[in-house]
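Summary of Year 1 activities. Much of the first year was spent building the evaluation harness for sequence design. The harness presents a backbone, in tokenized form, and records the residue chosen at every position. We chose the following record to illustrate the format because it has been used consistently in internal testing since the harness was completed.
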């Protein structure tokens, strides 16, 4: 195509660009009839895409691959899968071994695909004819979603053993190994008023964590809390746990050498300055990602705590706070230098004002 004037070329390009935008908003349509065999029986499957963005655990119907059995299908039947995305992330769901029809209102000309990108709060329906025997993986194609467990295995009933998989049990263990892995993390704030830090080991369901606050003298005190818990519920907002709490802080005494007893908000004698206690508790994630933690110690004392870390203020500034019924409180800010280093300032009811260097892994 040639143009006598430069402006003609610009107008032609603009026209092509406009057509591309219009076509992109129209539903996909196959140029051919993609209908499935009408006399084949139909097997309906329904899945809800679930997960926890804060913990980065992804699943179908709140179960990861290793927590489920294979889904059996029969050769010759039409398999229809309805998927609802109950998360705030998109999930491109991919089926191995088959192309499927995406039911998008195009009737007999529904497009053939092997991956469909499902937006948050969206429902999509796809269908295919089961005509290729094997064990086929159906999973999110964001690979770290897949590895955390967002998938299922579709398997044909009464199929012959696969000669390419001489050891099916070993293959199954390797498949399940991804979402059964534990990951570790640790952080520490080297501050002028003490060291605050934590270390954690977490998997799909279990969490083992310990945190410490170490002052530079007995009056600032030393603390360590360890919790072992299991996340439950569809969104994994709830975690019952068992724990152990050790604390020591030297208190001021009067002229007679007596230490004035302190009460918590429930009128119980406070052990926050000299505590060696086992505990049972539950942590629940409230709106705005605030953690509500309720804990009862083996001496009968009760503690309720509200806490949130990593409150975004700007792209690089984060805020945090904590307060509880032991009359402890903390507030602070962190400036993110890079993914492993930050600069901090915070005020702690026991240790006072501090400035520090924050390291995390």
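For this record, the design step produced the sequence shown next.
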């Amino acid at each position: 195509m040639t143009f006598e004037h430069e402006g003609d070329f610009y107008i032609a390009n603009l026209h092509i660009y406009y057509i591309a935008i219009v076509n992109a908003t129209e539903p996909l349509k196959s140029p051919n009839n993609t209908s499935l065999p009408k006399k084949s029986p139909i097997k309906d499957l329904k899945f809800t895409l679930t997960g926890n963005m804060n913990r980065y655990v992804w699943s179908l119907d709140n179960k990861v691959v290793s927590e489920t059995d294979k889904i059996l299908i029969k050769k010759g039947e039409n398999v229809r899968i309805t998927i609802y995305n109950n998360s705030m992330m998109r999930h491109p769901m991919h089926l191995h071994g088959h192309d499927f029809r995406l039911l998008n209102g195009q009737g007999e000309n529904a497009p053939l695909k092997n991956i469909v990108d499902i937006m948050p709060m969206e429902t999509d329906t796809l269908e295919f004819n089961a005509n290729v025997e094997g064990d086929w993986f159906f999973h999110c194609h964001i690979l770290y979603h897949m590895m955390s467990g967002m998938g299922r295995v579709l398997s044909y009933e009464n199929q012959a053993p696969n000669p390419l998989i001489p050891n099916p049990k070993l293959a199954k263990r390797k498949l399940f190994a991804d979402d059964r892995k534990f990951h570790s993390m640790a952080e520490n704030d080297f501050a002028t008023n003490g060291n605050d830090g934590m270390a954690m080991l977490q998997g799909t369901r279990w969490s083992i964590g310990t945190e410490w606050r170490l002052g530079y003298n007995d009056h600032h005190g030393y603390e360590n809390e360890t919790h072992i818990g299991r996340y439950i519920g569809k969104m994994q907002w709830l975690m019952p746990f068992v724990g152990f709490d050790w604390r020591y802080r030297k208190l001021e005494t009067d002229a007679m050498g007596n230490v004035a007893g302190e009460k918590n908000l429930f009128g119980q004698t406070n052990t926050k300055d000299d505590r060696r206690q086992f505990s049972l508790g539950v942590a629940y994630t409230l709106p705005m990602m605030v953690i509500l933690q309720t804990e009862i110690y083996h001496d009968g004392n009760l503690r309720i705590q509200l806490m949130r870390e990593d409150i975004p203020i700007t792209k690089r500034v984060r805020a945090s706070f904590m307060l509880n019924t032991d009359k402890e409180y903390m507030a602070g800010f962190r400036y993110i230098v890079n993914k492993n280093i930050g600069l901090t300032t915070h005020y702690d009811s026991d240790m006072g004002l501090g400035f520090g260097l924050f390291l995390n892994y």
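The two ends are 58 Å apart (CA to CA). Quantitative recovery figures across the full test set are reported in Table 2.
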